[in-house]
Amino acid sequence: MVSLILRFKKKGMLRFLSNLETIKAIERTLRRARLPMVFSKGFHPMPKFTFLDAMPTGVVNLSLYLKVILERKIDDVEERINEVALNDLKVHGHWYIDIDINESVKYYRFRIIVPEDLDFENLFVEKKGRRIKVKDRMEDVRKVKLKD
Question: Among residues 37, 36, 12, 35, which one has the least CA distance to residue 22?
Fold first, then answer.
């Protein structure tokens, strides 16, 4: 058995899939690609795979990581998956390595597009009766100009 880490990109209209719908879409894709996946034992066997934490619905995810256990290595794994994958849910990297993907990812990086006139320095949200300054909850905030 070997551990395979896959990096998918989920974009376009598929960004509106919930976490469970995304997992099902990827599972169906891996089955259609006829990967030699290892399945759990018992009454209702399921492929053995692990996802990172769920992203909010509606967010484009350019680094959706998945760890799947295979019976053996496959040389053309990306080609086999992308041949049967949905257009906006393709593999863009793979590694045969046995790591805990949840332990390996230290942070997420988001790009948020807001109107130019938004005063981000003084933006607050109400959460459980407390006023929280949005900028204080973020590691790195940069203003950039959008190109037309």
Answer: 12
* H or E element that contains 110: none
Q: Where are the beta strands (DSSP E) in 22-142?
A: 49-51, 61-70, 89-96, 124-127, 130-133
The DSSP-derived string for 86-101 is -TTEEEEEEEE----H
Q: What is the residue extent of each domain of the chain?
A: 2-104
pTM greater than 0.85 (yes/no): no
- Residue 131 β-bridge partners: 126
Q: ∠ at Cα 103 (67, 89), nearest 5°?
A: 35
Decide: 12 and 87 in contact? Cβ < 8 Å: yes
User: For residue range 41-76, what is the model confidence (pLDDT) as tens digits?
Assistant: 999 999 999 988 888 888 889 989 999 999 999 999
CATH, range 2-104: 3.30.70.580
The CA–CA distances, whole Å, from 74 to 42, 79, 122, 139, 148 equal 26, 10, 52, 39, 43
